[in-house]
Write a structure and sequence with these properties.
The structure holds 3 protein chains of 3 kinds.
Chain A (H helix, E strand, L loop, with lengths): L4 H21 L14 H12 L5 E7 L6 E7 L5 H19 L7 H12 L5 E4 L2 H9 L3 E5 L5 E4 L29 H11 L5 E8 L5 E8 L5 H13 L8 H8 L11 E3 L2 H9 L3 E5 L5 E4 L3 H4 L4 H4 L2 H31 L6 H11 L6 H21 L2 H21 L5 H15 L4 H39 L1 E2 L2 E2 L46
Antiparallel strand pairs in A: 1-2, 2-4, 3-5, 4-5, 6-7, 7-9, 8-10, 9-10, 11-12
Chain B lengths: L12 H12 L3 H10 L7 H24 L6 H8 L2 H33 L6 H18 L1 H25 L17 H15 L5 H4 L9 H27 L1 H4 L5 H8 L10 H31 L5 H17 L4 H33 L6
Chain C lengths: L1 H17 L10 E10 L24 E8 L1 H9 L11 E8 L2 H11 L3 E3 L5 E5 H6 L2 H10 L8 E5 L3 H4 L10 H10 L12 E2 H9 L4 E9 L2 E11 L4 E6 L1 H11 L6 E6 L2 E7 L4 E7 L7 E15 L9 H30 L6 H8 L1 H7 L9 H4 L1 E12 L13
Parallel strand pairs in C: 1-4, 1-5, 5-6, 6-8, 14-15
Antiparallel strand pairs in C: 1-2, 2-3, 6-7, 8-9, 9-10, 11-12, 12-14, 13-14
Helix pairs in contact in C: 5-8, 9-10, 11-12
Chain lengths: ~525, ~375, ~400
């Protein structure tokens, strides 16, 4: 890690020191007592004080059976499943205890044990004894059960809130392939992965991120395939995360990535469980954040971003053809406007005579040089894309028509832009849509501008220098220790079978060598390589 | 993070192979048919190229053998054990200057040729500056990054070269190859000397083998790496003679670019193939310059380990620029090229031979 | 971080400050598609500029350079309005100026047009006979070869009469005369024997550099069309044009050089004509007897394969092998006749070797060539003293799709 990274390291060092301070300060950030009292009433008051008696806080005090043993349950309305609390907690305590005929223990301690072992019929029950842990559990949808006379608190899993159903991922639609996508619900998401990989070695490790939000972040990998150091490094980086809130996995991505100066993504976000599972079997790790359907996959290389799951679902001829197409598309998406400018403004000699004459004829009367023309058109295109996302769906279509047809046609007939330019811009847009990774596509959209400036300044010479610079950047960029340009350079020829080509499934018998996996073979025979 | 070995600052023998090829293939190929053709007759130049190439191959092997005798030792370290420390420092600094001059020459040539084939009014100074800036950016990133760039660029460059040769087959007149073997034997040797200059550049191995993790495999990798330019030169020469004929060939400034001019792309997809060819060729020239620059930085750093790499690069880049822009015209640039060939001869051939002799005689081996 | 930023910003700064020296938009270029070189006459533009500088260096000659520039707007107008009205006028204009050097003239022209001339799309270069005969061809060619804008694929032709008139023809189906001429030369279908192979300027460069004599195709303008046929023969020492070779001699030459690709060869069978066409290249072999420098002997063996394209004489080809052989022999004799006619003209009248024997000798007998090379077709002129024999062999592959078009007349 030579370049770009030292800066990152510097930053990380800062974070580490900050983190150490933070551990002490958050505990009693607001000056409330943090220990749990033996008295139920006092505890409830304490909680109400901490939360400032919000309207969604539900507290219910009651006595068990005919004893004077006071209990209370605390939960947040909306985060909990009411029926769970009714059927599994309150009913069991009040009826179950009374009907069991057993003697009700007098001490709070034992009563609690009795509840835990015999009374509560919920699956998820845990005992906690600090208030901040209790608070966090309650705030994430559990129900707390306080019992008079003990400083132990039972927390019963009762999460249940309204969430979106499983839908087809909208950003990564495929013609062929599973239609289910991740949702905002972490459990649903982990379930997706479990359902795909029923390997006992599949690991889920929980982290909590966000100083305020305390979101669940799950690191998943397959033990025995993944390189252990990779997991170690990911964990180390996760521990440095110091955020108030992580509303989306994008925050995690930006915190974990190797170089924040790079326009290229070094973690790949995806909505597709099959994509994450495929990555796990290749020895990569996945990151799932609660509250977002976008999981993260790391490490990734440039080649990975141009792959789509469909390459594997279709037969290999098709897959290979699509790959080639996509590499070509990626090239066009970055270089086409630049090439057009270079050829038209600097090297018209390279255009075949007849085409040159017709381009010249088309540009006749256009008041701007090709650069300005291209800049304007590309920017308009970006505006259209942005507007298309922003607008409500029914109007979004209108924008497409107004922008694409009306403005385009009007601009051409008004002689502000040449028809050839419109074709070039449209081609660029189409090409950038052919890139399967949305984050890479955005990167390309930025690079296009750079290439246009270089081409405008120095024609083909500028373009080739731009190409070289992009390559310099790519070979020096790393994603969790893996050079971004692997397996092109450093080259692992065995991995090329699944790079631009997509060799027949039977022949990809080994997991990518570049991942240095523990278990190399993907098939019993391990292929012919 | 150290989990992925190949992500570290080490290179394997494959990287060395590509680096040698990329280093040698540079601007030398443009004028080679002319320089060799002017001292030989008919198509006899290929004998010279073969002769020069085999000689270069041998000396490259010698350099690799010498450097891999001292695994993981820098040039300075092993020359210190062979000759005394002051001499070693002197040699290292001279080598570093030679490599800087190499970068400067490549930069100037690329600017000159760009000026002819791509530009008209843009000043050479600006073209050179731009090129050098990109080279500096590449070098400032990391050495191992440059090796990876070789892996990426060399196949593209060879592909365009092969494309060029294939497309010229239509213009190839076998008659132009005749007469054969009518050159005097001195001519062959003169030609071989000219070729040898075009093969120089492998002296970077003196510096780089310290970085490789498989020193015992390097000599073989170097041999393969050197044979790529050898084959390329042979084919280019034969095609150029076949297309232009000997008489016309020696009158063209850059015959290799001129055969690109000759080509008409099938389907008239685009014209002026030479612009495209040269544009892509810039990639290998970049590799050559960047490797030379990087090697000189490494050499300097071995003498002055306290100076930070980045500062050294920023300090050296302007000097390289001045070196490169000093010659006022084409003839002086060629003169510089000749001098560079001469100093390359010393560093790639004379010095390694002597050092290798000393090492052999005194039986010195690294690590032992 | 600051370091990296500094580096990037410097780079971007350079791009912005430095760029755009060479940027000329495509519609601001004056695409030159054809050029013609003549000697100036009274009243030509630029000729009067003579007096203003008495001391400036003068060339041996002044030239009249005519460039044909494209008017792209009118090119596409036809397409846009569906070929209506045609009010757009011509898609080209020719512009001439007189100057001492080509380059100077080119720049003078740039003063008079709104779009400065741009040469990479140039297709043809026409030199007038007058200029060709003056021996200044290499001087003119220098500009068209040296400038890096120039393509090596430009076709060179010698015009009978004024060169700029050729650029002024008004072709019926093409918009640009130069493109029209270019496609005529490319026209392989009509690649008749009298249509000489187009000469690319790059090849001309090679010819100029050697002392070899060479030929350049001839072009004539005739109102709405041009006629390309015949060649101008140049002697290699001074690169001066010497003589024209007509249609049949060009064919003979093509036979001798082995470059014949097609073209009708008519023969008499009975009292009617049969027409034969070579398919594919003909094969030519040279055998040399060089024992006597003063009287070298060369035997040209020519082999041609082809088909019957027209048979006015009714012959039952399929059932009459004797007639088939007869036809083959007659064609061979005809080819031999044409070749020998050409040899006679070249060897005895012009005493110039454009057959390629000099190259043949230089390549195969370098030792001998050293002694005769300088006096090959001038001075001693060993060429004219040599004896050239032609042997021809013809194979008719098939008689076409019909055997006979009318019944055989019973004798």
């Amino acid at each position: 890690m030579k370049r770009g990274v030292p800066l990152f390291k510097m930053l990380r060092r800062k974070q580490l020191t900050k983190k150490e301070n933070q551990l002490e300060t958050t505990k009693d950030a607001h000056g409330f007592p943090i220990e749990i009292f033996l008295d139920v009433q006092k505890n409830i008051e304490n909680i109400q004080k901490i939360l400032n008696t919000p309207s969604d806080l539900v507290t219910r005090e009651f006595t068990v059976g005919n004893t004077k043993q006071r209990c209370a349950i605390v939960c947040i309305d909306g985060l909990v499943d009411q029926t769970t609390i009714n059927d599994k907690i309150i009913r069991n305590i009040q009826l179950g205890m009374a009907n069991s005929g057993k003697e009700i223990p007098a001490s709070g301690e034992e009563l609690l044990k009795e509840f835990e072992n015999h009374v509560l019929s919920a699956i998820e029950v845990k005992k906690l004894n600090t208030l901040d842990q209790v608070m966090q559990s309650v705030l994430s949808g559990d129900t707390a059960l306080f019992v008079q006379g003990t400083d132990q608190v039972l927390l019963i899993g009762s999460k249940g809130w309204a969430s979106r159903g499983v839908n087809e991922p909208s950003t990564e639609a495929l013609v062929r392939g599973p239609r289910d996508g991740f949702t905002e619900n972490l459990r649903t998401n982990t379930a997706h992965i479990r359902r795909h990989i029923r390997d006992p070695n599949l690991r889920f490790e929980n982290f909590s991120v966000g100083r305020r939000s305390k979101k669940d972040l799950v690191l998943t990998y397959i033990d025995g395939i993944v390189h252990p150091d990779l997991v170690g490094e990911v964990k180390r980086r996760i521990k440095t995360i110091d955020l108030d809130d992580a509303p989306e996995s994008g925050f995690i991505e930006q915190w974990l990535e190797d170089s924040f100066l790079s326009p290229f993504p070094t973690l790949s976000p995806t909505e597709r469980p099959d994509k994450v599972c495929a990555a796990l079997t290749q020895g990569k790790v996945g990151l799932l954040l609660d509250g977002t359907p976008f999981a993260l996959v790391a490490p990734i290389t440039f080649g990975n971003l141009l792959q789509s799951p469909e390459d594997y679902y279709e037969r290999w001829w098709v897959g290979t053809f699509l790959r080639f197409l996509r590499y070509f598309g990626a090239f066009l998406a970055v270089f086409l406007p630049g090439l057009y400018i270079a050829l038209v403004s600097y090297h018209p000699g390279m255009i075949p005579s007849k085409l040159a004459f017709s381009i010249a004829a088309a540009r006749e009367g256009v008041p701007f040089p090709a650069v300005i023309e291209a800049l304007v058109m590309i920017t308009v295109l970006e505006l259209l894309r942005e507007a298309g996302i922003r607008l409500p769906k029914p109007i979004g279509q209108t924008i497409g028509i107004v922008g694409g047809l009306v403005i385009g046609e009007a601009a051409v007939s008004a002689g502000i832009v040449s028809p050839v330019m419109v074709i070039v811009v449209a081609l660029t847009a189409i090409s950038s849509f052919s890139v399967p990774s949305y984050s890479l596509a955005i990167t390309f959209r930025i690079l296009v501008y750079g290439m246009m400036f270089l081409a405008a300044g120095f024609g083909l010479f500028g373009l080739i220098l731009g190409y070289i610079m992009i390559n310099i950047h790519l070979v020096n960029l790393k994603s969790f220790g893996i050079p971004y340009s692997t397996p092109f350079a450093p080259s692992f020829y065995a991995d090329w079978k699944d790079l631009i080509l997509r060799a027949p499934i039977m022949m990809i018998g080994k997991r990518p060598i570049m991942m240095q996996v523990d278990d190399e073979k993907r098939m019993r025979k391990g292929g012919k390589s | 993070m150290k989990s992925f070995e190949y992500g570290d600052e080490e290179i394997g023998s494959r990287e060395i192979l590509y680096a040698v090829s990329s280093m040698v293939i540079g601007v030398g190929i443009f004028g080679l048919p002319r320089t060799v053709g002017s001292v030989t007759k008919g198509s006899d130049g290929w004998v010279s190229i073969l002769l020069g190439g085999v000689l270069a191959l041998f000396f490259a092997w010698l350099v690799a053998k010498l450097a891999s005798r001292f695994p993981r030792q820098t040039f300075l370290q092993y020359t210190t054990t062979l000759v005394s420390k002051p001499v070693a420092i002197f040699l290292t600094i001279l080598l570093a200057f030679h490599l800087m001059q190499f970068t400067a020459y490549e930069m100037r040539t690329v600017a000159n040729i760009s000026k002819v084939y791509l530009f008209d009014r843009t000043p050479v100074e600006v073209i050179a500056l731009l090129f050098l800036l990109v080279v500096t950016y590449g070098v400032a990133c990391s050495s191992v990054g440059l090796f990876r760039l070789n892996l990426l660029f060399l196949p593209i460059v060879l592909l365009i070269a092969i494309l060029l040769l294939i497309m010229n087959i239509g213009y190839f007149e076998p008659g132009n190859l005749k007469p054969v073997f009518s050159t005097k034997w001195t001519g062959y040797f003169q030609g071989a000397r000219e070729t040898l200059f075009a093969f120089l550049g492998f002296e970077i191995l003196l510096v780089y083998i310290a970085m490789t993790n498989q020193p015992e495999k390097t000599p073989k990798a170097v041999m393969i790496g050197m044979s790529i330019p050898l084959l390329l030169y042979l084919f280019v020469f034969i095609i150029v003679v076949g297309v232009f004929g000997h008489t016309a060939m020696i009158q063209l400034t850059d015959p290799t670019i001129e055969i690109a001019k000759e080509v008409e792309v099938p389907g008239e997809f685009f014209e002026r193939f030479e612009s495209l060819f040269f544009t892509i060729w810039i990639m290998t020239i970049f590799n050559t310059s960047a490797l030379a620059f990087d090697a000189s930085v490494l050499a300097f750093r071995s003498v002055f380990p306290k100076i930070k790499r980045v500062w050294l690069i920023f300090f050296l880049a302007p000097i390289i620029y001045l070196f490169g822009m000093m010659p006022p015209n084409l003839i002086r640039v060629y003169e510089v090229g000749n001098w560079l060939g001469f100093s390359g001869f010393i560093f790639a051939i004379l010095m390694p031979t002597i050092l290798f002799g000393i090492a052999k005689l005194r039986g010195i081996k690294g690590n032992a | 971080m600051p370091k990296t930023l500094w580096k990037y910003s410097l780079l971007i700064l350079v791009v912005f400050l430095g760029g755009c020296w060479d940027r000329v938009e495509i519609e601001e270029r004056g695409f030159v598609v054809g050029a013609a070189v003549d000697f100036p006459k009274e009243g030509d533009e630029g000729n009067e500029m003579e007096e203003d500088a008495a001391n400036k260096p003068h060339g041996k000659h002044r030239y009249l350079l005519t460039l044909q520039l494209v008017v792209p707007g009118s090119m596409s107008q036809g397409a846009k309005t569906g070929g209506g009205a045609g009010s757009g006028g011509d898609a080209y204009y020719n512009i001439s100026s007189v100057g001492d050097t080509m380059f100077q003239t080119d720049r003078q022209l740039a003063n008079r047009v709104s779009r400065s001339p741009f040469f990479p799309h140039m297709k043809i270069l026409i030199i007038s006979e007058e200029v060709a005969r003056s021996g200044h061809l290499p001087d003119i060619m220098d500009f068209f070869l040296r400038d890096s804008e120039m393509r090596r694929g430009v076709k060179v032709m010698i015009s009978k009469g004024e060169a700029r008139e050729v650029l002024g023809v008004k072709p019926v189906n093409e918009k640009l005369p130069a493109m029209y001429i270019d496609s005529v030369t490319e026209n392989e279908r009509s690649s008749s024997a009298t249509l000489p192979d187009p000469l690319r300027i790059g090849d001309l460069n090679e010819k100029l550099l050697t002392r070899e004599s060479f030929i350049i195709p001839r072009i004539k303008s005739a109102g709405k069309e041009v006629k390309i046929g015949g060649v101008a023969v140049f002697e290699g020492e001074e690169n001066k044009m010497v003589e024209w070779l007509g249609g049949e001699e060009v064919m003979g030459l093509a036979i001798l050089k082995g470059t014949l690709k097609g073209g009708a060869i008519n023969i008499n069978v009975g009292d009617n004509l049969v027409s034969y066409e070579t398919k594919g290249d003909i094969k030519r072999k040279i055998k040399a007897d060089i024992s006597d420098k003063e009287n070298m002997k060369f035997i040209f063996t020519i082999e041609s394969e082809g088909i019957i394209t027209e048979s006015m004489e009714t012959i039952d080809y399929l059932n009459d092998p004797a007639k088939w052989v007869l036809v083959q022999n007659r064609v061979a004799d005809e080819m031999k006749r044409m070749a020998e006619k050409t040899i006679r003209k070249l060897q005895k009248e012009m005493k110039l070797d454009v057959i390629g024997l000099s190259t043949y000798l230089a390549q195969n007998y370098p030792e001998l060539w050293k002694s005769v090379g300088k006096d090959w077709d001038h001075g001693e002129n060993y060429f004219s003293k040599a004896t050239l024999h032609v042997k021809a062999r013809v194979i008719v592959r098939n008689p076409g799709t019909v055997n006979q078009t009318e019944p055989l007349q019973e004798d």
